[in-house]
Specification:
Radius of gyration: 11 Å
Structural class: mainly beta
Number of helices: 1
Largest sheet: 4 strands, mixed
CATH topology: Flavocytochrome B2, Chain A, domain 1
Number of domains: 1
Order of helices and strands: EHEEEEE
CATH superfamily: Cytochrome b5-like heme/steroid binding domain
Oligomer: single chain
Strand content: 25-35%
């Protein structure tokens, strides 16, 4: 799996490029097809970021990421 930096992930925010990606526990997921992520925003969450710490505030579990295709890994600095 290709490795991306946080800066590369940040560009996939639905505004700078057409891709809408988010990271969770080091894996980057393409959420572009989700109607819930239109324009790179899902409730108070923004695409192009690592959402690992924010998931505890979500009304769903990590299993939500099973619906999306992993596109890479987040570089561990």
């Amino acid at each position: 799996m290709k490795v991306y930096t946080k800066q590369q992930l940040a560009l996939r925010n639905g505004q700078d490029r057409p891709e809408i990606w988010v990271a969770y526990q080091g894996i980057i997921y393409d959420v572009s097809a989700s109607k819930l992520w239109r324009k790179g925003k899902h409730y108070e969450h923004w695409a192009g970021q690592d959402l690992t710490e924010e998931l505890s505030d979500a009304p769903h579990t990590h299993r939500v990421f099973d619906r999306f295709e992993p596109v890479g890994k987040l570089e561990n600095l």
